[in-house]
Amino acid sequence: MQTSVHWLENVAFQAKSESGHQVVMDGSAEYGGENRGPRPMEMILMGLGGCASFDIVTILKKSRQDVIDISCELNAQRADSIPAVFTKIHLHFIVKGRNIKEKQVAKAVELSAEKYCSASKMLADGGVEISHDFEIIEIDA
């Protein structure tokens, strides 16, 4: 996997992925930025949420759960000193669907956290305390 990051100006950078997608990252005005895009650390958090959600959707679909929608809300804490690494991250999954089995969602969340989510494993192995929970919202037929 490859990517490139190109400096635009001040503290704004444009990243381009191997698959051809681009995103602008920028800092806050406090650091000379213009708020033109997410912060680099926000990108890491978004990547974690996307990676874990990808796993959960595919696991639930394979277990024939009638999933309509999944979202993941992440809350992170960072160290007070430099480098301001993540110290704790909590992922809260909201699974919407019909007749979703709680046991299947719990298993999907556990499998993502313990086995499949590369981002989660990388952060946890680096010392970040990661926790998960979920809620199921039943959608009428």
From TrEMBL:
It holds the Pfam family OsmC. Transmembrane segments: none annotated. SUPFAM superfamilies: OsmC-like (SSF82784). PANTHER family: PROTEIN YHFA (PTHR34352). This is Osmotically inducible protein C. It comes from Acinetobacter larvae.
